[in-house]
Write a structure and sequence with these properties.
By secondary structure, the chain is of the alpha/beta class. The chain has a single domain (7-165, 180-190), classed as Rossmann fold, CATH 3.40.50. Helix content is 32%, strand content 25%. The chain contains four helices and eight strands, in the order βββαβαβαβαββ. A six-stranded mixed β-sheet has the order 5-4-6-1-7-8, sandwiched between helices. Strand 2 (17-23) and strand 3 form a beta hairpin. The termini are far apart.
Amino acid sequence: MVKEVPLTVVFVRHAQADPSNGTIELGPALSSLGEHQAERLARRLAEETFVHVYSSDLTRAWQTTQFILRYQNHLTWTISSDIREVSHHHFAPGRIPLTLSARKNMREERIALERFVGQVRRTHVPRERILIVCHGNVIRSIVPLFAGRRPEKAVMMDINNTGVTILDVWPSGEAVLKLVNCVKHLIPKQVT
């Protein structure tokens, strides 16, 4: 009997951003602390083997990815707007009052995340390891989607800047969350 093996998806939240430095369209750039966080993250991941890295198109995510690519310059890199953080609510209906515009943004974001999950499942095969650099709320929503579950039924996870989360996804649709929000690469005063 051949044992089924998973696709391993490593999620990383972007490093800390400076809200006073950026553009309206692509959001803020990394802060000085964020650059230090990203460098420590990149050194942590330097010995890891990935076949591909995806990042959000927002500045803070692709800048974090650039630090990683200094140590992993052989990787193919795809920037995707599908893993862009659009709303800050995600699957919070019922917890806070939402405007029609916020509900529309949440719906569009969910569709984009489902499209991204489908693309990853079609593109990558078991035994591969991929890296996804995105946003805390996106990670909270996309982990359940990879596992075939509704995000609004998932346990809320705290995701710090440069926190590492690892999910094994099997072809059968099962998934195991192996690590959540690990920031062991940071010194305590860098955890944000």
